[in-house]
Design a protein that fits this description.
With 84 residues, the chain is mainly α. The chain is built from four helices and no strands.
Length: 84
């Protein structure tokens, strides 16, 4: 994601915004399609929201909530596997 940020930072704002919107929404739509077809749908949706979070506030908040949920899930899984 940092690599994408560096590439986009070199572009003028209107071009960066348009490119981010197209790429982000394309990934979200592909992820939604992959939910009903074989493929990593949730992962691609999360990636699309992460791209959108570069420019949109609601996507930033959703991305932050998703990362917090993932951290909680990982902590719970670690505690389950350490008990055994």
């Amino acid at each position: 994601m940092e690599r994408l940020k560096k590439i986009l930072a070199k572009l003028p704002h209107p071009v960066r915004w348009a490119l981010t919107m197209v790429l982000g929404f394309l990934l979200v739509i592909l992820g939604l399609i992959m939910i009903v077809t074989p493929g990593p749908g949730l992962l691609v949706i999360f990636l699309g929201i992460s791209v959108l979070a570069l420019e949109i506030e609601w996507a930033r908040e959703l991305n932050k909530q998703g990362l917090q949920g993932l951290e909680k899930l990982m902590a719970k899984l670690k505690s389950i596997f350490k008990k055994e």
